[in-house]
Amino acid sequence: MTELVHMDKAHLYYDTGISLRDLSLSIGQDEFVYLFGPSGSGKTSLLGLMYMELVPNTGTVTVLGYDTNRLKRKEVARQRKRIGRMFQDPRLLNDRDIYHNLALPLEISGFSGKDARHRVFQKADELSIRSRLNHFPYELSGGEKQRVALAMASIISPELMLVDEPTAQLDEESSRIIIDTLWKIQEAGTSVVFATHKEEVIQIDPARTITLNKGEIIQDKPR
Ligand SMILES: Nc1ncnc2c1ncn2[C@@H]1O[C@H](COP(=O)(O)OP(=O)(O)OP(=O)(O)O)[C@@H](O)[C@H]1O
Ligand SMILES: [Mg+2]
């Protein structure tokens, strides 16, 4: 099995103190993994290590085969194109319409012309936002914005999707669309790492669950 993420005794300190302690874990291809734990347990910090925004102070974090402590900035940017990232608050580009929000990650990855247009429409249909393509982000509801954010994060078919509490502010129906789509993305061959503090989310769609408490992994339970 190819490993997408491997951590070996990784520690992460902030100025304020230790955030992650002695993390060892491995995430392979085609996995759906929950990061579960209360507020402050380290879920976002752990996603930050996987997105190479943070590097461990001691121990190693290997992402897509690269030791993140040795990666040069330029190489980080290159490898990040293989990773989709979703935040709790949808981060869209407010100066352009939804079509061009979706087209941007494609442009950065070298897609253009017909191929890019086709992917934008396909993603928009998948997430039921086709009628919003000519609108600007401020014209969208919170649920629609989060669907656009998911479309942007997944439009280049990343190998790894890192998702941080994307449904915290959404109603049940919008949450369902996001979660169902993430499962479809996983079935199509992307590994999904999904941080949540909600036990209900895991009960409805069980999967491997890594439980954090005070910056430590206290359980890593297969589905
Ligand atoms: N930039 C930072 N500087 C200093 N301390 C930080 C920083 N980011 C997080 N921390 C601390 O690290 C610990 C883990 O925070 P983290 O945001 O990873 O938790 P979380 O599980 O994502 O919480 P939540 O569910 O509230 O989002 C907390 O004690 C937090 O205060
Ligand atoms: Mg968090």
Explain this structure to me?
The chain has 223 residues and is α/β, with parallel strands linked by helices. The protein has a single domain (29-58, 81-221), classed as Rossmann fold (3-Layer(aba) Sandwich), CATH 3.40.50. Helices cover 34% and strands 29% of the residues. The chain is built from seven helices and ten strands. The chain has helices at 43-50, 73-80, 98-108, 113-126, 142-154, 172-187, 199-204; strands at 3-14, 17-28, 32-36, 58-63, 66-67, 83-86, 160-164, 191-196, 208-213, 216-221. The strands form two sheets. It has a six-stranded mixed β-sheet with strand order 6-7-8-3-9-10, with helices on both faces. Strands 2-1-4-5 form a four-stranded antiparallel β-sheet, with helices on one face. Strand 9 (208-213) and strand 10 form a beta hairpin. Helix 5 (142-154) packs parallel to helix 6. The model has no long low-confidence stretch (mean pLDDT 95). Adenosine-5'-triphosphate (ATP) is lined by residues 14, 16, 19, 37, 39-45, 197. Magnesium ion (MG) is lined by residues 43-44, 164.
